[in-house]
Specification:
Layout (H helix, E strand, L loop, with lengths): L3 E4 L7 H12 L4 E3 L6 E5 L3 H11 L8 E3 L3 H7 L5 H10 L4 E6 L14 E5 L4 H9 L4 E2 L14 H8 L5 E4 L10 E4 L6 E4 L5 H8 L3 E2 L27 E6 L2 H17 L4 E5 L11 E4 L6 H17 L4 E5 L7 H11 L4 E3 L2
Parallel strand pairs: 1-8, 2-8, 4-6, 5-9, 10-11, 12-15, 12-16, 13-14, 13-15
Antiparallel strand pairs: 2-3, 3-7, 4-7, 5-6, 9-10
This protein binds adenosine monophosphate (AMP) and magnesium ion.
């Protein structure tokens, strides 16, 4: 299949192009598009065949449910059985934006879209191109991240091309994304509501609106031995091809430990990489050292993380060490993705 690549500037949206992209989705095709979190791979959420195509294009296991993207509250009422007061409160505060809510699904949503579940994940993105495309596509766009399954989510169109060129009808290039990590997911079908995936909207922000909020036990820990709450959580994610280990400890100890390990790996003729911060960049002696920015600037770190993981693949790095990041607030989302990318391999130095 030939994939058409078009560019749509969010400040000057080309309505004719948006309509063409919407028509592709209405006709059962797939269009990758920018959102504020990461690039999404969109298909008609109410068309079972479209969802099946999404799974095929990504190489994603079909029991890993998709998030349905909508552009207004009227659309929410169509796809869920009832809208609880908690969902209304969260929507007022955080929609449009990087928050996904799990609710009981209406019959109109095919099981293919929800991975066979009776619940549906819904998000209303704020990115202007995403919003217009959703409307042009009929209002209900199922969109997982636009990467091949297991790889880091794409934060710019060039990575979508890398993963999906020739497998989907169209890619809309809208420039680099704003946030760089996937949406926060909260399950509202349980009491108390449970955060299934941390993101830009933090636990504290959700608590301020909802009162008590729980966290899924697999969020920051190795989930290999436990049944996951959300099916998709059992799969390896965001992983670079090289072997990634996180090292946690005081700044000096971490640098010394990693440099020791790097020297060892190089003696074994392995190409080495380090993920660090501006303050420590010059102290490492790996083949490829990449700074995620200033440690205190979590938004910048989040924006860069997936790009860095992909760049290690481009440079064929085999052994990667990463500094650890603070896991509070938005940092929890950063560490959640880094831990998954590392398969939870962490060295704790005293
Ligand atoms: P993404 O790859 O960003 O599209 O993320 C989709 C993730 O959302 C899945 O892997 C699940 O973890 C979660 N999810 C989607 N739908 C549901 C649902 N109905 N119930 C629980 N989790 C869901
Ligand atoms: Mg994904």
């Amino acid at each position: 299949m030939e994939t058409r690549l078009v560019r749509i500037d969010e400040k000057q949206i080309d309505e004719a192009l948006v309509k063409e992209a919407g028509d592709v989705i209405r006709a059962g095709g797939l269009v990758a598009f920018p959102t504020e979190t990461v690039y999404g791979l969109g298909g008609d959420a109410l068309n079972a065949a479209s969802s099946e195509k999404i799974y095929r294009a990504k190489g994603r296991p079909s029991d890993n449910p998709l998030i349905v993207h909508i552009a207004d509250m009227e659309a929410l009422a169509v796809i869920v059985r009832e809208i609880p007061a908690s969902a209304v409160k969260l929507a007022e505060r955080f929609w449009p934006g990087p928050l996904t809510m799990i609710l009981n699904k209406a019959d109109i949503v095919p099981c293919e879209t929800t991975g066979g579940l009776d619940t549906v994940a819904v998000r209303m993105p704020v990115h202007p191109v995403a919003r217009e495309l959703i409307r042009a596509a009929g209002g209900y766009v199922a969109a997982p991240s636009a990467n091949r399954s297991g790889r880091p989510s794409p934060t710019s169109a060039k990575y979508v091309v890398e993963d999906l060129n020739g497998r989907i009808e169209m890619i809309v290039d809208g420039g680099d994304v704003e946030i760089g990590l996937e949406s926060t997911i909260i399950d509202l079908t349980t009491t108390p509501p449970v955060i299934l995936r941390p993101g830009y909207i933090t636990g504290q922000m959700l608590q301020e609106v909802l009162g008590e909020v729980a966290e899924d036990h697999t969020m920051m820990r190795d989930d290999s031995g436990q049944a996951p709450k959300a099916p998709g959580m059992k799969y390896r994610h965001y992983a670079p091809r090289g072997e990634l280990t996180i090292v946690d400890g005081t700044a000096q100890n971490v640098v010394e430990y990693i440099n020791g390990k790097v020297a060892e790996a190089r003696r074994a003729h392995k190409k080495t990489g380090v993920i660090c911060t501006d303050a420590s960049l010059k102290q490492y002696r790996a083949d490829v050292c990449k700074s995620a920015g200033e440690r205190s600037d979590e938004e910048a770190v989040a924006r860069k993380l997936y790009r860095i993981l992909r760049e290690f693949d481009d440079e064929d790095v085999e052994i990667i060490y990463a500094e650890s990041f603070c896991a509070d607030g938005f940092g929890q989302a950063i560490m959640n993705r880094l831990l998954k990318a590392a398969g939870h391999k962490v060295v704790h130095l005293s």
